[in-house]
Amino acid sequence: MNADFAFLDELVPGLRWDAKYATWDNFTGKPVDGYLVNRIAGTRALCAALGRVREKAESRGFGLLLWDGYRPQRAVDCFLRWSEQPEDGRTKQRHYPRIGRAEMFERGYVAARSGHSRGSTVDLTLYRLDTGELARMGGGHDLMDPLSHHGAAGIAQDEAGNRAHLRSLMETCGFSSYACEWWHYTLTDEPYPDTYFDFPVG
Length: 202
Hints:
Blueprint: E1 5-7, H1 8-11, E2 16-17, E3 41-43, H2 44-59, E4 62-68, H3 73-83, H4 92-95, H5 103-106, E5 121-128, H6 157-172, E6 175-178, E7 181-187
Parallel strand pairs: 2-4
Antiparallel strand pairs: 1-3, 4-5, 5-7, 6-7
């Protein structure tokens, strides 16, 4: 791994994670190229900022659950190849119920050059420290639908509040949000804004 990258669990104690693309539980329906272990990596700058988020979240009774961080370019290329394959319906209802595979790219849910590949973008949510239960957000990770947009209509008041809470924590600690995905945040002062890495996570 690049010397300026690390596994987040090594530098940010107390994180929970479920590296979706290293598992069968993602929109492609199988492990994705470049994810060799179920762990999440990122730049050391990302780790430091997430440490600040974790402390603030903990003071309010929440922990962080991460789904993705650094994403090798080969994984993005895998997404592109998958989008060109015939629809088999296995993950459509859960992840892209109202669009076709190719539309994921057209509508900005998946990019051919992903900010994740620069190492300072993270997908995450909140969970309650007292119960371990995930905060209700009005839709799961990688639901490619207007319901996932910030300010979406059709979600409950507590779900909107939880999204706002996560956004406040992240933006206070130096992250910017992405309009189409409530779970997606990028470090504003990212160290590699123009570099797309391709070393595997493992």
